[in-house]
Each structure stands twice: as structure tokens, then as C-alpha cells.
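Q: How would the C-alpha cells look for this protein?
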Amino acid sequence: MKAIVVTDKAAGTAGMKLVERPEPQGASLASLSGANYGDVIVQVHASGFTGDELSWPSTWIDRLGRDRTPSIPGHELAGVVTALSYGTTGLSVGQRVFGLTDWTRDGTLAEYVAVEARNLAPLPGDVDFTVGAALVMPGLTAWQGLFEHGRLRAGQSVLVHGAAGVVGSMATQLAREAGAYVIGTGRAAGRQTALDFGAQEFVDLDNDALEDVGGVDLVFDVLGGDIAKRSAGVIRTGGTLVTIAGPTEARPPGGLTIDFVVVPDRAQLSALVQRVRDGQLRTNIGNVAAFEDAVAALNPTERINGKTVIRIHPSGLDDSLTSAKVQFMRRRRVYKSNTTTPTVFYRTLNVEGLDIFYREAGPRDAPTVLLLHGFPSSSHMFRNLIPLLADKYHVVAPDFPGYGESSAPSVNDFDYSFERLAIVTEKLTEKLHFSSYALYLSDIGASVGFHLAVMHPERVTAMIVQNGDAYVEAINKEFLTKGLSDYWEDRSEKNAQVLLDWLLTIEGTKWHYLHGVSDPSKISPDNWVIDQAYMDRPGNKDIQLSILYNARRNLDAYPVWQEYFRKQQPPTLVTWGKNDGIFTVEGAELFKRDIPSAELHLLDTGHFALEEEGDRIGSLMHEFLDRTLSSDLLRQRMPKQANTLLTKQLPKAA
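A: Here is the predicted structure in C-alpha cell form.
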């Protein structure tokens, strides 16, 4: 098997080498020859690495003090069980797992590893291997430091050092969930990250006085040294200083100092991963690299903010299946997709001070499909489409600012331009560590998405355009004469009132859904009732007027978008409600002028085509994405970006 080994402590990570090593044998496990009672073999799909583990004695010697080089580093893994030893309980062959390996045994930067079964927990199918590996060490460290050693309770205050870091960000989130008041510390550059992860205050250790913090109940320390000593002075009498930075002489008055080393714990891992599934906990991943690039990734030339995760088997177990088995798996997947509805999660993430709500479903290590909604709806318009795609794809549908459950700051406090909405969407995808995505583009979501595609053409794997315009010819002239063209010419209160009296009323919203449909009885009234309820919130119609006015600027962007189409030739599926009263069929057909390979399907319905033709659009998308997003086609079409796209590694800035 391939593995990374180290032989020279002085060389550090620069001495890492990717070599061939003997593979742990399932047969020896069964006979207990050369293996421990209760061991399992795991095919490693993703591995974490802790930066200072090459300084640990256990990396170089075994429990008896004997040299064990060349040793394989890494102790955090997510993968699949391939063999069990006698005495193993709680796990089975083929099961997805994640966990922490023994410090004094060969580690996880290898294709296979032998590990005690009790150190592993089941990894749910909707949590990808990268997230699982990134959760292990930081999650267990934060949990044990806060709750086992720090005995943190609701209502207490905690000072978290390095709150923007891998462990500190995890501690911040868990402490907030437990009902504590969290003060984060770090360098000035980490302020916003710490606040995004939930810190309620931030102390810049370079420029602010730590001693001004006042009395806290608990300090969670990852820095040690002078910071640990000074931290003891801000702890209330009887409080606790918990540190992972090694022994310290710092003592809070009348309290405790606890230096601890993290230990494996299956129950805690299960509790942590459930919080990830519920949207209550996020990992802090800075870089994801393929195995062949691991040595370079673990020797970065610039600082990486967040954890580096190495994808060992990015394509999963199917790599070794025969063609007959592949066909069986495909039939089984189709059967499952018809009988089991994927779970949809409803989550919120702070993006540049805004709470951005999004729906999410499907395996996170699958290709991502980003669904961008239209006016005057929200991600609610995708409620039926998401389950149709999530059997095989990672599907995310955000609400733009001003829509649905996302923040809706006033027009005086936020620029409701399409350029700004694209930037917020960009930042959301980067916080979720999406290096690539297929875009579903509808109505205003198309305008946002085209801006996003021009900003990051290297990230767009495919486009699905559903009644979203990029051509002047697409705009229905009759629709413009109902008030919008006059408002574009003169942004007066009089012209605004015309839109307020029709387009932004319940009748106007209902018109969006019913105009041009073949059977109105198929369209649920919930659509316009829900959309109108959001629009009727105080100040929201001013937001919608701003959006409508700023739409005129998209006309100037059309040539830029069209040049993107001609130059990049993104794989494109156009599914278009041909009876739409806003965007014409000509607008759909023009995509084929600039993208000759685009596939066009005209559907006998109106603007919100998903309401009447959702099953057909879902089927067309599935077939299109299955063809387009295969690894071989990606490598042919985007050879320079393919490895990045397939491993979900965010590209480095130029």
C-alpha cells in the first residue's frame, strides 16, 4: 500500500516521503498474529494531521521505548472497515467509521490502518469522509477540555484562546451550544472568523490587554507559555484553567489547572457527528489535498487557516468493483432513490455579518449542486427537487439576503445589487469549503449565478438554466410595460407605487405561479401565501424594489456573461417553461448560439416550472449530471482543475 513515512525527527514534515509499505492483513487479524485483540482494518478515505505530532515521543518509539521508524504519522481518520479481528464488537465489514488511532502505532496517512475498534464510531452516510476526519481530534479535544475537565455549565463564561483555529473554533461552538458566554482570543486577522464561529467578544492578543477581560469561569488554552500564565489572572476564584499546551505553573486563585491529552471516545464522537448533521457544529477545514500531493500540502509555503485533510481514497470503494458489481450497485441505488427520501437539513451560517439560511441534503463528499432561487420566492421553491437529486449529489439551496429565512437588513444598511448578492453567495460556498459546483439558475438566481460564474469560472462544473435570462431578447416586452421599464427610467415614488400596487401584491405573486401553467390545480396556494408573507414583513418591499431597480444593471452585464459562455463552454442543460410571461422562448434558444452543446427542453408550463414539471426536470437533471460530472469527463474537459474539483479542495488565490 502507499503510505507517508518519517524517519528523521530533526527533519520534521520536510522529511516526509510517500512510499510503498506492507498492508495490514485481514488474515493476521483473524488469527491474532501480529495484531491486537479487538483490532479492525480500515481503508482510509480521509486523514487529518496535527502539526506538532512529529515532536511527540510516541511518533518515534513504541510503548516499550523501542525505535519504530520508519513510522506512519497521522491519527485522525474516516474510512471503511475491511476486516475484523476476533473479539471485535460494535462494527461490521463495509461500515463507514471515523476515529482516533493509538499514538504509538502506525497512523492514518496510509491507504489502510489497523486500529482498535473501540477507538472508532460509525460515520453516518450523509457526513462525508473529509468532514469526519476533520472532526475527530478538534472535536474530542474541545469536548473533553470543556466538559470533562473544565466542567462547563450553562450560564458560565469561558475564554477560548485561538478561537479562530482548528480546536478553538470547535470549543467556541460547543461552549455556545452549552449556554456559556464565549470570549475568543487570537491575532487581529482571526477576529471575524472567531465571531463567525460564535464568539461573543474577541481579544486581540497583540493589541488588546488580556487582563481587561475580567473574571471568567474557565480558560480553554491551546497556546501555553506566557499566555497561559497571564490567563490564570483573569479566572474567578475557584475557576479552572484547562490547557493542551503541556504542563504549566499557572494557577488560578483557589482553582485548578488541568493539562490533558485527548483520548478516543466512541460516545463523544457520536455526539459530535450528530451535531454536525443537525447543523449545530462546523469543522474548520483550510485545505483538502489528494494523497499524491500530501507531502507538499503538509509543507505549505504560506500559512493555512484551518485544518489540512488528506483524501486517501477520494473515489471510494467502487474503484475496485467489477463491471457486474457496478451495475448491481447502480440498480440498487435507483431502487433506494425510489423508496427512501433523503433527509433535508435546514441550517444557518453567518456570512459577513448576515445569517444566511440554506437547505442541504445528500452525501457531502459527492459533487455539489448549488440551487439559486428566483423572485419572489426562496429556497422553498426547491423543496421537491432536492430529494430527487440528493440520493447521489450534495445539494445546497441558500436564501439570498432579503428572502426567506436569511437576514434582511434595510436598504440603508445593505447593497441589494446582484454583484453584492453574488459575493455573499461566494463567501457562503467558501465557508462550506465548496471548490466546485453545478449551478441551478432561475430568475434572479440566474443573475446572481452568472456573476458568480464569471468571478470563478474554474469552480463551475455545469449549469442548469431554468427561466433565467442572459439576453435582452429574453425579456417579455409586455411584462416590462407593466411598470418595470418606467421604474428603471425614473426611480420615483409614483413609479414605485405602480409596482407596489401589482407586482408586489398577493395577486402579483400568484400571477408568477399561475400564468402559463397547463393545469392550475397542480399548483399549491402555499407558494404565493408563503412568498407574500415574507414580502409583507416591515421594510421588505423596499428591499424588493431595490432588487427590481438593480436588475436593470444586469443588461450591461449580459455581454460579459455571453463571453463567459463562449469562452468556457460550460456543460449546460436548459429546462424552460415556454409559457413564461417574463422570459421568452427566444431567450432559452439563444443559449445554444453561445454554447452549441447546450441541451434545450421546452416545457408546457410557466415561470416556476418546477411546480408543474418538477419530476421531469429532476429526471433530466439527474441524467445530465450523471453524464457530465463523471470523473473521466471532468478530467477531459478541465484537466488542470480536475484533481481539485474531485477532491473538493478550494483553489489557492493567485
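The domain at 2-123+284-311 is CATH 3.90.180.10 (Quinone Oxidoreductase; Chain A, domain 1).

The first strand starts at residue 2 and ends at 5.

Upvote if useful.
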